[in-house]
Amino acid sequence: RVQNKKLYLATFAAVLGPLSFGFVLGYSSPALPELRKIGNPKLRLDSNQASWFASVVTLGAAAGGILGGYLVDKIGRKLSLMLCSIPYISGYIVIISAQNVWMLYFGRILTGLASGVTSLVVPVYISEVSHTNVRGMLGSFVQLMVVTGILGTYIAGMTLKWHWLAVLCSFPPCIMVLFMLFMPETPRFLLDQKKRAEAIVALRFLRGPYVDHEWECRQIEANVEEEGLNLFEFKNPSVYRPLLIGVILMFLQQVTGINAVMFYAETIFEDANFQDSRMASVVVGSIQVCFTAVAALIIDKTGRKVLLYVSGVIMALSTALFGFYFKLALPNGNNSSNADLWFTLNSISPATETRLSWLAVVSLGLFVAGFALGWGPVPWLVMSEIFPLKSRGISSGACVLTNWVMAFLVTKEFQDFIGFLTSYGTFWLFSAFCCLSVTFTAFYVPETKGRTLEQIEAYFRKS
Question: What cellular component terms from Gene Ontology apply here (predicted)?
Fold first, then answer.
């Protein structure tokens, strides 16, 4: 019990980072309607500026992935996470004190930078401090806290103005710094830095006093490479194979269309006669939180691959239904070149809208639930498990960079896809990528349930 309490305390301190990250992602949804109508003309956003305000975070996060990959190996997991609080808080200060649109953009880039570092460091920290039997559950808390943060901003945004909401969003990173001050660095990083005595102290904190710390320390030491990483190491299958798996998982997570669907969720709900679009966002956020929590509770029993299979199939079916909805509902199959989804949805005839609007809502709910069950949390967890210790920083950085660049491209180019492929064709393309994700999981993703990080590393060396 002592072990569990201390380990859960360290995990809680770390996942305040993803909570902050979720606040960043969710902030634009309640803030944008106000910023588009604000009295100050220097701060008022038009539709193009609003799009950039929402999506520029992903560019900052992509840069954060590169920075985090460097920091996590140079200064450690704990200090990297604590330093994240600086751009988080600075970004919100810039937003609150903004005098023009460019200051709003800069504040969003800063919070995005912190989010990118956080999305890399926290999964690595949790996987390295966790016991094998609970590593999957604790690793899934990363995504759970992200969606909790998003839901929190949706709810708070119903009552708080945009600048007060920014003040609220700055609290989690402040609390994270205070908690992380009292948490240990990961034993694996300490042993890599030849700090054996400190690693034993860290293990005693995380496992309790009645465990054989020396045995676990020796197990980790057996896998700690003495030589540093160089480019020639990437010719080694034990380095490049897990890197390719991680990068492709992140690529597939985004090309299934989650960010595009979430970005236009309010429009879809409005079309289905939901008058309060903010309440609709809360409903979607609640679905995400519930199913991510379910995934966290069952992942160490079912395994990673099973959740990816189930999630991929649900998402493939729901996006296919979305396409079917647009094919049936839109006049002439929506073959026009108009790429505005709002125009597309509003060209649906009232009679068809009444008969088929339920299909859009059900499809959206299924898609969000399916994503939260597997393809939301599992790629981040697998990323934190499969990389060798010596390449963990640079490989994780490549994965985070891939994820955020693809998030930006899918969100920004969604309208162009609708213009080129039609709305139903775009959702059927997402469905095809969901099917591809299931196939990739079957043939290339290893099951890491019940294995230590050292055993996973040994698997790649042998195979």
Answer: plasma membrane
